[in-house]
Task: structure prediction
Amino acid sequence: MKYGPIQQAMQATGADACLLSSNVNIYYLTGQVFAGFVYLPAEGDAIWFVQRPAGITAPQAVYIRKPEDIPGLLLSGGLPLPNHLLLEADQITHNEFLRLEAVFHPRQTGNATPLLRQARMLKTPEEIAQMRLSARRHAAVYQQIPSLFREGMTDLDLQYEIENRMRQKGSIGVFRTFGSNMDIFMGSVLTGDNAATPSPFDFALGGGGPNPFLPIGANGTPVRQGQTVMVDMAGNFTAYLTDMTRVYAYGALPDYAYEAHQLSIDMNKRFLLEGKPGVACSEIYNWSVEKVEAAGFKKNFMGITQQAKFVGHGLGLEINEPPVLMQRSKEVLQAGMTIAYEPKFVFPGVGAVGIENTYLVTETGVEKLTVFTEDIIPL
Amino acid sequence: MKYGPIQQAMQATGADACLLSSNVNIYYLTGQVFAGFVYLPAEGDAIWFVQRPAGITAPQAVYIRKPEDIPGLLLSGGLPLPNHLLLEADQITHNEFLRLEAVFHPRQTGNATPLLRQARMLKTPEEIAQMRLSARRHAAVYQQIPSLFREGMTDLDLQYEIENRMRQKGSIGVFRTFGSNMDIFMGSVLTGDNAATPSPFDFALGGGGPNPFLPIGANGTPVRQGQTVMVDMAGNFTAYLTDMTRVYAYGALPDYAYEAHQLSIDMNKRFLLEGKPGVACSEIYNWSVEKVEAAGFKKNFMGITQQAKFVGHGLGLEINEPPVLMQRSKEVLQAGMTIAYEPKFVFPGVGAVGIENTYLVTETGVEKLTVFTEDIIPL
Result:
């Protein structure tokens, strides 16, 4: 039951209820998106206060015109108003927060966002089943990429064809991210020196993007002989995302590019072998950086002019969920976490190499969800 | 100069500065997106406080690590700290707002969002030029739609092909909306009775969508003989959007569908003829509803089970900008506004009909930007 961990966290902090209105949290708790609110008390069942669409017939659903209707409905249902209310302070706007606070004027208002993100971090069997389905479709699209490539294509030309095949395999299109420092459209295809272009956003790599209004990813660079194409498109084939990066090469690459790519494969193997509940996320980050330093690739690791400070991240309904595999993480791996591990390298004149897989932390170890050839694939 | 109207509004309310961090407002004022802040004082030049990406060399750019660095930089530059500061209270999260408020602890904090939305409502010649370019590409894609259709296709199959042609014509992909009650992927293709399905979002029409996580638009309904396909895809071929709806038909439709479609064309003609600075948005809404009532189509207007309460809206960097053509609007048309007018009708067993065009309000009237055949187009 998804309420359980959230209600336990509420009880532990003395909170009486959460009022949730973000699409992602409403979907998480109800299996659908509506305009309105999920009211989850610290004990007992949730109530869905729905504004739109018309026609939701679930027994938990109560139609409202505006959030100001909720307190009266709670009271008339014999329920107390919350003294300590949690709102999504990291997701809703300041004015939305103030409005909801004024509706309930609780004695204390807290932040529901971390509770929900912590709960969502540990996936249920049903969520994992969706991720397995996304992973299979993700691999089926990547399998087609060599057949989509034509000499003279730019990164964008190739991306358009990949996007089309993603949609045909059931991609829902939207690629959900958490926070204001993320923006992207369906994923990233990076070739040549565009792989080194820094972006404003908090992804592993950047790219100049198609327009100053979307400065991330492919930017119209032609795919050239002796260079790579790193494909890191969204696995958004269900509500639950998989994250998988593979590298394609047009012609032969310098030896160091193959070496660095093999290092990424080896690091993924180590993650798969050594990952298990209890392993610290910071430890994974630290051994990753040590491996890279020992191999002499530190200046190419996770970018050049701007280097990401993480080597992996949780994911699910959003691409950037906890935990983050970074030096200052306090998290340890737990069964039910799903984590993308993505050691990547960028080389001037060549492009990016390295792989990314999505893993499930099990009771005893780690299972790879994104099963697909890991070597550099010729175009 | 884009600062002018915002600075005048600040001066009129006694505000000393705006601190802006949303992608859309940063792009509006700087022509690019970066992670960081634009600090716009009530008089004088803006300062760009940039966190990422590395490499911005504009003279206004000052690199910071975190917003807490800004006050010291202002003071060391001989600038006063703001006593009355405006933050984007309708765009940034509650916690982002609190953090920025704590950084400056101004005597008074206000909302920058309405000022920016009012300023952005009146387009400059450069912005209008981008919209003209979007409109041309928008029409070029819609022109191809009959050649993309194959018997047996679903709405999603057709949408995937339209999306691919949009990308090939330079669509940047992302389709920007304002507010938390909007979610969509590249636009909407509605056929048959899916056109009547209500959605949680504040668009003119709904549709069940491809997944409960994205309940809007095409849902896999086969395109059937005697039904329509309403195409309302984003005109996101530049940073500035155009909005255009056209109707395609597979086989012959009932007479009333053609009649209602012609009514929408006639209403668009009236908007074009009578629209000019000074005309009230509420007046346009009112005569639109009167026309529809007189023709006997009120129960089909803007949906069936859930009917939108507007007939048009401003647009630009986002699809839902002021003004809104609705009964309770207090706005009047002004030169430089760009407005989508979209009287639409839904018929059970048939689908949606009606057109939408994007118009520019000029000094003397209204100019149509989305020039493309308006009749129902056979598939």
Remarks:
- Residues 3-119 of chain A form a domain with the Creatine Amidinohydrolase; Chain A, domain 1 fold (CATH 3.40.350.10).
- Chain A has a mean pLDDT of 97.
- The radius of gyration of chain A is 22 Å.
- Chain A has two domains: 3-119, 122-378.
